[in-house]
Amino acid sequence: MIGAAYLAAEDYAAPLGEELARRGITVEAWHGRLALSPDPPVRAAWALDTWTAPREIAVPSVKAAADALRAMQRNWSACPATLHRRMALIEAQLPPVKSRDLMFPAAAPTAHLGTWTLLAQDRLLASPTKTSPFPNGVCRFVEDRSGPPSRAYLKFWEACTLLRRWPAPGETCLDLGAAPGGWTWALARLGARVTAVDKAPLDPRVAAMPGVSMRQESAFGLAPEPVDWLCCDVIAYPARLLTLLARWIDAGAPRHIVCTIKFQGETDHATAEALAAIDGAHLIHLFHNKHELTFIWSRDPAEAVASPQADQSTYAGSGNRTMIGS
Fold first, then answer.
1. Mean pLDDT of the region 51-70
2. DSSP-based three-state secondary structure for 264
3. At 177, is the secondary structure helix, strand, or coil?
4. In whole numbers, what is the pLDDT of the chain averaged over residues?
5. Confidence of residue 24 (pLDDT cuts 50, 70, 90)
6. Active site residue 155
7. Which CATH class is domain 153-306?
8. What integer pLDDT is reported at residue 312 of this predicted model?
9. Which helix (H) or strand (E) element contains residue 184?
């Protein structure tokens, strides 16, 4: 019996496997990037998507597979690992699921969506519920290829899309480690008042945007101050970021935090677990992350990362503060 399945991002199966092992979760097999476990589902930060109710179904034909899926619900996204041609034939018999690039700002989709794969030619694995509102956790945007000085802004867009909340015109934002200014550009485009903090200068085009000011100093030397959004994409050791974030939260300074946790070499799972244990925190591997996790925190506990099909009771040990999946 398969109790849960966890989909790793491309090239990041190892951190997911390590995280699950630290949590005491057995992985009996990998099906491509999909970790198959007999244990009940838990929130896993390194999973792009978690299948919370997987079912194995005998399917002697393409028609039998499509019929079985349609009998459960309407909307399905395929997760191919092998047997691509047969999966395509099954998918062709299902109602189409359109996945358009998002025009930011936009909230994550709320339509119910299941996911499936073929484990063998005659064996289907299907989960009517999953944690990501996107097919296979893939969140794509209509990109601006001329305004921002880097593509780092896509991480901020994705975090806000999942949070279903983004800076409003006039809200105050601190962007720590801002240079060259990808996140500052994204914040200013929303009409927020942004203070960029970095020892290096901003891209001149970003520095000239309305509502942008600059402090050329260390992000780690800044004393906590009241701010609507504390944003951070600085390159720093995770333990140092843990100290910084805890200091700002303990001071009651920010209303919202979006911070990239970057790992160099081996993944620092211990610090990741400490970050995830902060009350109100969500730790997620975004589609646009590399060897990184994104820390999302809101002072209001009612504001949660979008997971429209999986509530707290879906997960084993849901009463404890644990790592949050996407």
1. 98
2. coil
3. coil
4. 92
5. very high
6. no
7. alpha beta
8. 40
9. helix 182-189
